[in-house]
Amino acid sequence: MIIKNLTCIECPMGCQIQASIENEKCVDVKGNGCPRGKIYAESEVVCPMRIVTSTVKTDNGKMLPVKTSMPIKKAEIFEVMEKINQIKAKTPVRIGDVLKENIADGVNLIATSNIN
Amino acid sequence: MKKKYDIIVIGGGPAGLAAAISAYDKGAKSVLILEREDCLGGILNQCIHNGFGLNRFKESLSGPEYAFRFIDELKTRNIEVMLQTTVLSMREDKTITAINSKEGVFSLKAKAIILAMGCRERSRGALNIAGSRPAGIYSAGTAQKFVNVKGFLPGKKVVILGSGDIGLIMARRMTLEGAKVQAVLEIMPYSSGLKRNIVQCLDDFDIPLYLSHTITKIEGDKHVTGVVVSKVDQNRQPIPNTEIHFDCDTVLFSVGLIPENELSKSANIPLSPNTRGAIVYQTRETLVNGFFACGNVLQVHDLVDFVSEEAFLAGAYAGEYIKKANKGRDAVDVKNGKNVAYVVPQKIDKNIDGNVKLFFRPTKMLKDCTITVKCGDEILVKKNKKIVAPGEMETLILTKEKTDKIVYEIEVLVEGDI
C-alpha cells in the first residue's frame, strides 16, 4: 500500500489529505475536512480532473470568459485550450450559453459572462 | 439631475454591489452607486478563474458569474448607477465632488456614504529593486487585465515575484495561453497565497516556487531580458553568491494589495496603520459619522464571499443610520495582541445589539496554536487551530453576552509553535 499526500483544491481550506492507494485505487482517505475532500482524493490518485477557465474572442471584439461545464482530464488541458482558442463567440451571449458541445469527454464549453 | 440621495456608494465592485442592495433592503429610498469603469463588477470582471462563491452560493463560480449574481439582484431594486464617473473628493458633511463626460464636474449630497473603492497593487517602486527600467514589467493584476479583458499576452517567458494569489493565478493563466513561466519567487519562507492555488496553478504545470528568494536585479535596456534572483536570510537580506539568473521577457509583481483610501483622507477619515483602511466599529461605520467602509478598501480580503458579507453588514447599518438618531457610543478598543497583525473592527460599540465577528491576521505562520480574546485577565473566547498563516484571514465570533463583559478594551492574541 502506498500513502500519497495531497492538498485538497475543492475549497480555500486546502486540507492536507493522506490517500492510501492499493492496486492503483484509493482505498482510504484521511485528513479531509468534508465529503468533497474524499471525492477529490479518490479522483486525484486515479485521474486528476480540472475545470478549465479561459476566454474566447467575440464578433464585437470583446473577450468572453468561458469554462468547461465539468472538470476535464488534467492531461488534456492543453488540447482543450487549443480548441478553445479556435472559437469565436456570437453576441449577444449569456452566462451558461454553450459555445462548444463536447469539447472533451462529453463536457461542454460554456460562457461565464454576459455580453450584449 | 438629482443631487440628494439617502445613500451614495462609491465603487461598483463586489463590496459596492452588496452594500447598495443591503442598504436598499433596510429601507433607504434613494441609493446611488458611483463607478469609474464602464460596467459594474469591479475586479471580478477580470477574474475569469473559478472558485468564487463557495461559501455564499455553495458553487464554484467564475468572477463574472459571481458579479452577475449581484448585478441581477441589483436590477430588481430601484437603485441608481452612474458609470464612468470618478469621485474626485468628499467632505465630512457628506458632499461628494465627481466628474464624468456627460455632466462635467458636479456635486452630490448624501445622508450616508459607503466607501467601497477596493484596493490597488503594490508597485515595483515600493520595493526598491535595483536595475534598469525596461518595458515588460507589470503588476500581476495589470497582466490579468491584458490577458483576460483585452486579449493580449504580455510576453512568452515570465518570472513572477511574489506568491500572492493573483501571481499564482497568472502563472497558470499565462501558461495556458502558451507562455513559459520560469519561476515564482517568494521572499518569505512560506507562500502568501492559498494552498489550493499552489497545487492547481503551480504544481499542475511544474512551475517552480522558490521560497526565501527575491529579485535582486532586473536586466534589459528597452525591454526586460532577464532577472538575477538571490536567496535571502532570516532578515530577508540577499545572501551573496546565491545568485540564479533567469532569462525572461516579462516580470510580474504580485507583492501585496493596499486599500485605496485617497478619498477617505479627503474627508479626514482616520485610517489604521495596520490595515491601511479606515478604523471602524463593528457596524463598519468609520470614526466620521455617516461614513461606512467595506471590502478591500477597509481590509484586504482573501475571499470575495467575506467581502460580500462585510458589505451586507455595512449597507444594513448605513440603512439603519439614516433612519434613526445615534444612541451615543459606548465603545471599547480591540487591540492587536501577541502575533496578531490587525483586527477588524478596531472598535466595538457596546450599544449595538448582536454578535461581533472579528476578522484578523497573524503576523507569522504558527502551528498547533491557541487563539485567545482577552479583556484584562479574563478570557472571553479561546479557540485551538492546527495552523495559522498571514496569508489566511481568521475569524472569531464574540457573542453579545461576551461583549457585555468588556470593560475598557480587549486583546486578540495567537500563541503557538513556529
Structure description:
- Chain A is α+β, with helices and mostly antiparallel strands.
- Chain A is 17% helix and 42% strand.
- Chain A has helices at residues 35-46, 77-84, and strands at residues 2-7, 16-22, 25-30, 49-50, 53-58, 63-68, 72-73, 88-89, 98-104, 107-111.
- The longest helix of chain A has 12 residues, at 35-46.
- In chain B, helix 1 runs parallel beside helix 2 (63-75), helix 1 runs parallel beside helix 7 and helix 3 (140-150) crosses helix 4.
- Chain B has eight helices and 27 strands.
- Chain B has 418 residues and is of the alpha/beta class.
- In chain B, strands 1, 2, 5, 6, 7, 8 and 19 form a seven-stranded mixed β-sheet that branches.
- The longest helix of chain B is centred in the C-terminal third of the chain and has 20 residues, at 304-323.
- The A-B interface holds A 7-12, 14, 48, 50-55, 57, 63, 65-67, 74, 77-78, 81, 95, 112-114 and B 45, 48-51, 54, 60-65, 68, 147-151, 176-177, 194-196, 198-200, 204, 302-303, 392.
Report a brief summary of the structure.
The complex is a heterodimer of chains A (116) and B (418). Chain A is of the alpha+beta class and 116 residues long.
Considering the chains and any ligands shown, give keywords for the structure.
heterodimer; A: 116 residues; alpha+beta; CPE0013-like fold; 5-stranded mixed beta sheet; 3-stranded antiparallel beta sheet; 10 strands; B: 418 residues; alpha/beta; FAD/NAD(P)-binding domain; Immunoglobulin-like; 7-stranded mixed beta sheet; 5-stranded parallel beta sheet; 20% helix; globular
Secondary structure layout plus pairing:
The complex is a heterodimer of chains A (116) and B (418).
Chain A: E1 2-7, E2 16-22, E3 25-30, H1 35-46, E4 49-50, E5 53-58, E6 63-68, E7 72-73, H2 77-84, E8 88-89, E9 98-104, E10 107-111
Parallel strand pairs in A: 5-8
Antiparallel strand pairs in A: 1-2, 2-3, 4-7, 5-6, 6-10, 9-10
Chain B: E1 4-10, H1 14-25, E2 31-34, E3 50-52, E4 61-62, H2 63-75, E5 79-82, E6 86-90, E7 95-100, E8 104-115, E9 119-121, E10 137-139, H3 140-150, E11 157-161, H4 165-176, E12 180-186, H5 195-202, E13 209-211, E14 213-219, E15 226-231, E16 244-247, E17 250-253, E18 257-259, H6 262-266, E19 291-293, H7 304-323, E20 331-336, E21 340-344, E22 347-349, E23 356-362, E24 366-375, E25 378-388, E26 394-398, H8 400-403, E27 409-417
Parallel strand pairs in B: 1-2, 1-8, 2-5, 8-19, 10-17, 11-12, 11-17, 12-13, 20-27
Antiparallel strand pairs in B: 3-4, 6-7, 7-8, 9-18, 14-15, 15-16, 20-22, 21-23, 23-26, 24-25, 24-27
Helix pairs in contact in B: 1-2, 1-7, 3-4, 4-5
